Amino acid sequence: MAALDGLPPLRDVIQRHGLDAKKALGQNFLLDLNLTQKIARTAGPLDDVTVIEVGPGPGGLTRAILALGAKRVVAIERDPRCLPALAEISAHYPGRLDVVEGDALKVDFQTLAEGPVRIIANLPYNVGTQLLVNWLLPERWPPFWQSMTLMFQREVGLRIVAGADDDHYGRLGVLCGWRTKARLAFEVPPQAFTPPPKVTSTVVHLEPIDKPIPCAVSALEKVTQAAFGQRRKMLRQSLKPLGGEALLGKAGIDPQRRAETLTVEEFCRLANCL
Length: 274
Ligand code: SAM
What we know:
Layout: H1 10-16, E1 29-30, H2 33-42, E2 50-54, H3 60-67, E3 72-77, H4 83-92, E4 97-101, E5 117-122, H5 125-136, E6 147-153, H6 154-161, H7 171-179, E7 180-188, E8 193-194, E9 201-208, H8 217-229, H9 235-238, H10 244-251, H11 264-273
Parallel strand pairs: 2-3, 2-5, 3-4, 5-6
Antiparallel strand pairs: 1-8, 6-9, 7-9
The protein binds S-adenosylmethionine.
S-adenosylmethionine binds at residues 25-30, 54-57, 60-61, 76-79, 82, 103-105, 122, 124, 127.
């Protein structure tokens, strides 16, 4: 059965172009166009934005984004085998899809598009967290993106949205909580992917906070790294290399507390006292 966009079913595309999944590239493809549309819809209105997609693969999510009316899509794909399949989509949507061949970890995303940008991706698990952190770290804020709608392993999704006193709270939760409003949109079971991964996945939607608590990224990184590096220890111990009790006293934080009990605001206070 042909897909609603008039392009061939993804299974045929994969077979015709010999796109058997490579584990080293984190290739777990989504072939259900209803599901890819659900992910694309989670991002919000797409008409006036450029969507940056990392890892389009055979193009299931790319097709959904274009079918939902994205003005333009810039997709970065590392696997050259996928390029002919993506070229067919490009031809079907003239002038709306640009494919960049390369490693997303080395791309300067700020220069890819002008105007409002949304990032949507079913990320390769091996580089997903690093990409997210890169998009959260620039000193300049608000960033170049208006929203990010990203697929992660469920475990990573829980870490992204975790706050104080949550078992999954850590450096990622502080960074995301400081600069974004992040929510879990919905879960995706292993059998939705080809081939199925071992774990459940989750789609996370993040939007930047306009004015996060003023704080230097590097200082916040230092504090959270030390505090969560020894998360079961009291802060007077784990933060010793950064000033221990003196630093905690200056920030007005009880030295007997542990990292996982501190709110994002308290981490910022510590960073600002460094
Ligand atoms: N978007 C497709 C889908 O939903 O079916 C494929 C998603 S698959 C989980 C991840 C994709 O990222 C693969 O196509 C893989 O080749 C690509 N990829 C892996 N590492 C990459 C990197 N460093 N930079 C860009 N793309 C990468």
